[in-house]
Amino acid sequence: MGLEEVQIRNLEHRANRAGWLRAAVLGSNDGLVSTASLMIAIAAANKSDFIITAGLAGIAAGAMSMAVGEYVSVKSQLDVENADREIETRQLAEDPESEFAELVDIYVKRGLTENLAKQVVTAMHAKNALDAHLRDELGHYDHTRARPVQAAAASAISFTAGGVVPLIGALIATANQVPLILTFTAAGLIAAGYISAKIAGSALPSTIFRVFSGGVIGVTITAGIGWLVGLTGV
Fold first, then answer.
1. Of residues 208, 129, 162, 153, the one with CA closest to residue 19
2. Of 85 and 16, which is predicted with more confidence?
3. What residues make up the domain containing 75?
4. pTM tops 0.90, yes or no
């Protein structure tokens, strides 16, 4: 098998998607559940005139909140990675012999003989010692590196896409909006689970069930709170 074929086969791996997939799945699911829950809670509280306005406001506020939250959290992860890089750079400059021995020990524990491990580390130090230590000592890989802007964008876009689904149900309803909101939300949750499973390479039934059941619980609780608010006349 040639190098080109190996590179093509490596594209099947999902690790390079981890940086944005989590944000996208969380955003779409949150957009579906929070927007639907908000509109159904308002309907349950007998405030149906405000459903569309609440849905639009919820999508805008939620998308911005998700984007900012993702950026801040992933930026913190990136700060840790950068700090580790600085520490490793300093250690290599101050005590290269100990760092060499540390990497040899890592490879020996993975199954190489000591002589072979020393040959490997010598070759790696000659090419790029820092990258070798970041990868094999700390588990830092470029394809899994924290990317705050990418995560923020994926979160905001997916939240908006998810929130639009129940909103469409409310917009096209001619009378009672709740049944169509629930129908569109259920379809959106199933689609989100399906897309998530396909991108991540996970089992379809369990992924769809996890996303769908979580959404149902969230909508049910929020609708119940709206119903209680309607009973009290608040």
1. 153
2. 85
3. 17-88+150-232
4. no
